[in-house]
Amino acid sequence: MNWNRLVRQSHRWLSIAFTVTVVIATVAALAVEEPAVWVFLLPPLPLALLLLTGLYLFVLPYVARRRGARRIARES
What's the whole-number mean pLDDT along residues 55-63? Predict the structure, then answer.
């Protein structure tokens, strides 16, 4: 399987998981007078994974452009 495709799919599913996690945490926090600590610790994990995959996807075009420039320089 292609790494780029795997990272893109992971990023998409992580965004869905993060959204659902935040909604659940918000509803749980609003339903209880004194919310539990786990409610606040739940969203950062998917958010950290989203950050990593998002940074990878952000840098990907720049790396591809640089590789293309190197390839053209070698052929000249």
Answer: 90
